[in-house]
C-alpha cells in the first residue's frame, strides 16, 4: 500500500503541468515614457505601492515595470492588472516597488 501511494505521488509530480516550467516574467521599461501623457502613476504609501494606468499589450501580473522619477529609476512588480474593454490595450495595475 505504501509503495502504490509513493508511486501515485511520483506520477502526479511528473505529470503536473507546472513541473519543470520556469516562469518568464517580462520587464517593461516605461522610464522613457512621459508621465501624464503616456501613463499615470499614483503613488501610495510613500511610493512603495501605486496604481498605474498605461497602454501596452502582453503585460501581466508578476511582470515588472521600470519607471523614472527625476533622475532615479524604480522597478515595480505588477501585483494585479485589469485591461479596459476599449481601448483593449489600456490597463490599470496595482504595483509594488521591488527593493534591490
Any overview of this molecule?
Helices cover 14% and strands 41% of the residues. It has one helix and six strands; from the N terminus they run H-E-E-E-E-E-E. A six-stranded mixed β-sheet has the order 1-4-5-6-3-2, with no helix packed on it. The N and C termini lie far apart (49 Å).
Assembly state (oligomeric): single chain
Helicity level? 10-25%
Radius of gyration, in angstroms, nearest whole number: 19 Å
Order of helices and strands: HEEEEEE
Mean pLDDT: 83
Q: Uncertain regions: pLDDT < 50 for 5+ in a row?
A: 1-21
Shape: globular
Report the major sheet. Answer: 6 strands, mixed
Number of helical elements: 1
How many β-strand stretches? 6
* DSSP strand content: 35-45%
Q: How far is the N terminus from the C terminus?
A: 49 Å
Structural class: mainly beta
Spatial strand order of the main sheet: 1-4-5-6-3-2
Short summary:
By secondary structure, the protein is mainly β.
Which helices and strands, and how do they pair?
Elements: H1 2-15, E1 27-29, E2 40-44, E3 49-55, E4 64-69, E5 72-83, E6 90-97
List keywords for this structure.
100 residues; mainly beta; six-stranded mixed sheet; globular
